[in-house]
Amino acid sequence: MAPRGDPARAEVLARIRTALGTPGGGAGGDPPAAEVPRGYRAGAGLETAVRRCGPAGVAQAVREALAERGARRVVVPPGLGLEAAGLDGVTLLAGDGLSPGALDAADGVITTAAVAIAETGTIILDGGPGQGRRALSLVPDYHLCILDAGQIVGIVPQALGRLDHHRPGTWISGPSATSDIELDRVQGVHGPRTLEVILVGP
User: Fold this and answer.
1) CA nearest 141: which of 193, 178, 94?
2) Could you give the residue range(s) of every CATH 3.40.50.10420 domain in the chain?
3) How far apart are CA 153 and CA 159, in angstroms?
4) Residues 137-164: what's their mean pLDDT?
5) How many CB atoms are located within 10 Å of the residue 159 CB?
6) Contact 181/34 with Cβ under 8 angstroms?
7) Is the torsion defined by CA of 153, 156, 161, 163 positive or negative?
């Protein structure tokens, strides 16, 4: 260990003090360290990603969500049950058999989910009725998910207990996003840029 009077030790400690902005720093008259910029985002920038309604209000909530989004051509999987909802001005496209190009050209997709996790904000699709094949929730730019309040569990182990592990699972915890090598955040690379949930409860 270097003795207390060692000049190298004194210089190292002075530089540390300078970097930390503590008194006694600035060996050799070095200027204080520049403040680290803090211009990164501190929030998601979304007013809300969840709409709430009662069982009788699902069709109206879907109409409002699609109208605000400007969605006119929307993909729906088998078993969703929205065909009789009276979505004026909206064309519902059957999800089975649509090519990736046709899915990409649609304004969005509406699905249900198998289960959701409150702690992580995750919805899980397993291809069951009203959910469709995996491509439906990965290709369109907008995903509207209708979720019953009874499908929400608290933590991940509870969700695992409700899932059929023989079915393919898609776990979604918000809009798709990734960062390139320079840490520039890009949304919608491998999934929708916008995820919205209609929470149906009493």
Assistant:
1) 193
2) 50-200
3) 6
4) 92
5) 24
6) no
7) positive
pTM for the predicted model, two decimal places = 0.69
**Predicted confidence (pLDDT) at residue 104 exceeds the cutoff of 80:** yes
- Is 176 within 8 Å of 191 (Cβ atoms)? yes
Of 103, 5, 62, the closest CA to residue 196 belongs to: 62
Six-digit token pair at 140? 């369109």
Categorize the per-residue pLDDT at 27 as very low, low, confident or very high, splitting at 50, 70 and 90.
Answer: very low
Query: Comparing C-alpha atoms, which of 96, 90, 28, 24 is closest to residue 63?
Result: 90
Backbone φ and ψ of 12, nearest 5°: -60, -45
pLDDT surpassing 90 at residue 191: no
> What pLDDT is stored for residue 189 in this prediction?
61
Q: Return the number of other C-beta atoms located less than 10 Å from residue 59's C-beta.
A: 14
Strands 194-200 and 152-153: unpaired
Tell me what pLDDT residue 184 has: 74
The CATH H-level (homologous superfamily) assignment of domain 50-200 is NagB/RpiA/CoA transferase-like (3.40.50.10420)
Q: What's the whole-number mean pLDDT along residues 69-92?
A: 82
The per-residue pLDDT of the chain, averaged, comes to 82
| C-alpha closest to that of 111 among 190, 191, 38, 181 | 191
**Joined tokens for residue 1:** 């260990």
